[in-house]
């Protein structure tokens, strides 16, 4: 058989039995490429980029008002840098895919899923984690409201819920119960403490 994938007489003469399996595999591979999405997602581009970079780099992150320098691979996420390099374990790793909100932190006052951004990309920005909300022994109003309204059970999602609640109030998206539920919907609570969480956020919003 010709070594060409599609020999000139292939339409008239099917491949020999011994090479039929190879022919099907090759044709299937070409079909797969033809049907593949033409553009990579941002996450895929970042993953491909990180695989081309070797070793570690020095980076400085301003977290809770303090500049912290660490050594890490360029591909390390902000979540892992906070937890593994800076020992700020209040920010939780849940799904690691940006779907549960347990890793929510504030960057320049805006809430983000820290598992979906690279630490190196957040240099020069103001990063606030759950550890940076209280002022000494004085709790942040959102923390106090969560305690008052029993807005948690197992507590695993609570840091992310609180950080998202703080941002929700700052954004002006906690004016009604329905609005609060919609803008807090990116934070999941497997224990089902949603009514209490809404009550806590709404109380803080009422005093803002």
TrEMBL record:
Superkingdom per UniProt: Bacteria
Keyword Iron: yes
Keywords: Iron, Metal-binding, Oxidoreductase
Pfam families in the cross-refs: Fer2, Fer2_2
Residue ranges occupied by any 2Fe-2S ferredoxin-type domain in the UniProt entry: 57-133
Signal peptide: none
Coiled coil: none
Alphabetical list of InterPro entries matching this protein: 2Fe-2S-bd (IPR002888), 2Fe-2S-bd_dom_sf (IPR036884), 2Fe-2S_ferredoxin-like_sf (IPR036010), 2Fe-2S_ferredoxin-type (IPR001041), 2Fe2S_fd_BS (IPR006058), Aldehyde_Oxdr_Iron-Sulfur (IPR052914), Beta-grasp_dom_sf (IPR012675), TAT_signal (IPR006311)
Region entry Disordered, spans: 1-20
PROSITE patterns (alphabetical): 2FE2S_FER_1 (PS00197), 2FE2S_FER_2 (PS51085), TAT (PS51318)
Entry annotated with the keyword Metal-binding: yes
Protein name per Swiss-Prot or TrEMBL: 2Fe-2S iron-sulfur cluster binding domain-containing protein
